[in-house]
Specification:
Blueprint: H1 5-14, E1 16-18, H2 25-40, E2 46-48, E3 54-58, H3 65-71, H4 74-84, E4 88-101, E5 123-128, E6 139-141, H5 158-166, E7 169-171, E8 178-182, E9 187-189, E10 198-207, E11 219-223
Antiparallel strand pairs: 1-8, 2-3, 3-4, 4-10, 4-11, 5-8, 5-10, 6-7, 6-9
The protein binds 2-oxoglutaric acid.
2-oxoglutaric acid (AKG) binds at residues 95, 99, 126, 139, 187, 189, 200, 202.
Amino acid sequence: MSLTSEQVHLFRHNGFHKLKNRLPEELVEKLKEAIWRNIREEVEPVVRDAEGRIIRLSGVVDRDPVFLKTATCPLVLDPLESLLGPNIELIKNRHNHATLRRASEHRPEGLHRDVRQWSRTIFTVIFYLEETTVENGCTQVVPGSHHFPGVKGRLYDESVTRQLLEQAVPVPMSEGGMLVIDSMIMHGVGRNRTDGTRMSMTMGYHSVDEIADLENPHRMLVRGERPYDGNVPRRQ
Ligand SMILES: O=C(O)CCC(=O)C(=O)O
């Protein structure tokens, strides 16, 4: 379902949008199964916590077809088309991961951006494979912070982050829910204070760069085409 012009306006103003539709239950179950299987079999590349437990699977679209199927389904690409236009690439070297936050996890709370500069922002979709609540550490965003200028890295220093955290709002989501953010928005994950897990998958998208003349192997065309508008011929 495409977005209305009001929804597009709010997204541009606030920097986030909760998609109306949810992933079908069977698809969520298949994603969870694939994630648990990859965790059990310790399929690299993974990120581990201090105790050596797997907390992230990287490069998921090359693991099992269900990940790419989900990342490119019309439930995601139709609304993204309202934001990015008709030609969309999936980014394979930013996000493209599944994250497991374990019970009573004590990772420090903080805020980050996914990219450095507003002129090169991407849009991130977070797919929630379990319900997220304030108790299990739902996503937090600072509305409008994607309009702040670029900083040196993707983090502010601690004192600014503390002030920003005071303005962060929680965004609880249902299982199967999807949240699109402008990746310049300051966002983070709350602490999981429950006995359960909090599982999610994150993907990044970009509109096709019509001036780029060389194909980037980390970008996969998932909708439309790759027009070329450069004023010199494409390199071969
Ligand atoms: O799961 C979330 O709430 C945030 C995800 C995120 O920031 C990431 O995957 O980079």
